[in-house]
Write a structure and sequence with these properties.
The chain is mainly alpha-helical and 139 residues long. The protein has helices at residues 4-61, 67-87, 90-108, 113-132.
Amino acid sequence: MSVWPAVIGVGGVVLGAIIGGTIALLTGWQSRRWAHQQWLLDRRQDSYTELLTAVQAAMDAGPHADAPERRRLGGDIFRASIRCQIVGSDFVAEAVIPVLGDVPAYIRQADEAARMTTHGPVLQDAMRRGLVRTPKLRP
């Protein structure tokens, strides 16, 4: 009676367990990575929409907004800008810096509202480039 069939059988079982475990680990890692990328994309889209909406509201209010309204709108822009700095792409994080710089002037003087109109197209372009460069999501 030979020992080799038993050794080959045990070796096959061990090899199958190693391959099965490796595949399970890789699948779990890929699934978590995909879920994180999807979460990040959703947060980016939400923050981009929030910022564009806030800038548009400031542009719509124009120079006729009173001081409390400008404070509220400036606060909305500031909060949305910070959120974009946190989850946004590098393109958006850089494009938001001038917006943050103009918020205090907008809050102080209504005639600074014209400055906000220059930010809309720049932000949209940066957001478009940032979303295009977001890693492709594959389930």
